[in-house]
């Protein structure tokens, strides 16, 4: 079993930056691909970014490209999401998740964190 805990969310203004962290315990994160997802009020959860086990491959949703950067530190069992130039439409609960391989498909992610709230005011 693995436990994932996100942190770093908060209330910011449009144009600001935030760095989210996801700490994995109970299982080595180096064995898993990792993804960040978000769910805005009244909307379905959506893929934001993903990173392969070794960090050599990343994938971003169109909404995140050029503004967000996913990275990982396997020695610290931690995955990060650097979010720059935040927009009000980025407001959501952001969750990290672990999968056997890098994919956008949520059903392949078998471990999920509870999420951290990101609110971007205009």
What does this structure look like?
The chain is an all-beta fold and 122 residues long. It is built from no helices and eleven strands. It has strands at residues 3-7, 10-13, 18-25, 33-39, 46-51, 58-60, 68-73, 78-83, 92-99, 109-112, 116-121. The strands form two sheets. Strands 2, 4, 5, 6, 9, 10 and 11 form a seven-stranded mixed beta sheet that branches. The chain has a four-stranded antiparallel beta sheet with strand order 1-3-8-7, with no helix packed on it. A hairpin with a 4-residue loop joins strand 7 (68-73) and strand 8 (78-83).
Question: Over the alpha carbons, how many angstroms does the gyration radius reach?
Answer: 13 Å
Shape: globular
Major sheet description:
7 strands, mixed
Order of helices and strands: EEEEEEEEEEE
Helices, by number, come to 0
Indicate the low-confidence ranges by residue numbers.
none
Strand content: over 45%
Helicity range of the residues? under 10%
Mean pLDDT: 95
Structure class: mainly beta
Distance between the termini: 40 Å
Strand elements, count: 11
Concise synopsis of the structure shown:
The chain is an all-beta fold. Helices cover 0% and strands 52% of the residues.
Helices and strands in order:
Elements: E1 3-7, E2 10-13, E3 18-25, E4 33-39, E5 46-51, E6 58-60, E7 68-73, E8 78-83, E9 92-99, E10 109-112, E11 116-121
Parallel strand pairs: 2-11
Antiparallel strand pairs: 1-3, 3-8, 4-5, 4-9, 5-6, 7-8, 9-10, 9-11
Features:
single chain, 122 residues, mainly beta, seven-stranded mixed β-sheet, four-stranded antiparallel β-sheet
């Amino acid at each position: 079993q693995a436990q994932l805990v996100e942190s770093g969310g908060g209330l910011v203004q449009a144009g600001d930056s935030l760095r989210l962290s996801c700490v994995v315990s109970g299982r080595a994160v180096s064995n898993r691909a990792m993804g960040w997802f978000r769910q805005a009020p009244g909307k379905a959860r959506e893929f934001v970014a993903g990173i392969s086990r070794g960090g050599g491959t990343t994938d971003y949703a169109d909404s995140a490209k050029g503004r967000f950067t996913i990275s990982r530190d396997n020695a610290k069992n931690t995955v990060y999401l650097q979010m720059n130039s935040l927009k009000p439409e980025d407001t959501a609960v952001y969750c990290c998740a672990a999968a056997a391989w890098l994919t956008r498909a949520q059903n392949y992610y078998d471990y999920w964190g509870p999420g951290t709230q990101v609110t971007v005011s205009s």
